[in-house]
Amino acid sequence: MLAAADMLFAQSKLPGSVTMDAIAAAASVGKGTLFRAFGNRDGLLDALWATKIAILKERVTTGVPPFDESAAPLDRLIAFLDAILMFKIANRHLIHAREATGGLLQSPHYRWMHAKTKNFIMEASNQVDEDYAIYSAHALLSALHIDLIDEMLAQGLSVETIRQLQAARGKGVIRIA
């Protein structure tokens, strides 16, 4: 079912228009089977997202370089933001479909990205209070919305330029004592 959904989202010029009916037909299952398995379309998108982001989550959780403790917290923050940017670009069809729906900020994936970003910010500077880190994490992640990324690319920014600017922005949230 997830493979069928992934294929339909990848082939669609408007991923938001891919319906549960179309996914069920492509997967050769009944629509009810999809709803029992995933609850709703957002649940299906979140499950598909989970399969695709699992490798990154494992790398961050287990401390694989550049996320290991020997790396400076600021470097881990920059590497994390870069990994999210590249993940979104590589999976833009899925990300477009999910980010177009409501409830994104309550999704387990956004909550995970936000928590990690906030923690990296707090580790990078002992001058940062939690409120500042919460806000800054949201601000950094807002620049990684797929529609904004696509708009920057359409305006002529290269992926490498966006990566460099994102790194500079990440460094800018750390308060220097």
TrEMBL record:
Which InterPro entries does its entry note?
A: Homeodomain-like_sf (IPR009057), HTH-type_TetR-like_transc_reg (IPR050109), HTH_TetR (IPR001647)
The record's keywords, sorted A to Z, are: DNA-binding
Position of the signal peptide: none
- UniProt DNA-binding region: 19-38
Q: Which ranges carry the HTH tetR-type domain? A: 1-56
Taxonomic superkingdom: Bacteria
Pfam families the record matches: TetR_N
The record lists the membrane-crossing segments as none
Per its UniProt record, what PANTHER family does this chain match? HTH-TYPE TRANSCRIPTIONAL REGULATOR RUTR (PTHR30055), POSSIBLE TRANSCRIPTIONAL REGULATORY PROTEIN (PROBABLY TETR-FAMILY) (PTHR30055:SF209)
Q: What is this protein called?
A: TetR/AcrR family transcriptional regulator
Tell me the organism's taxonomic lineage.
Bacteria, Pseudomonadati, Pseudomonadota, Alphaproteobacteria, Acetobacterales
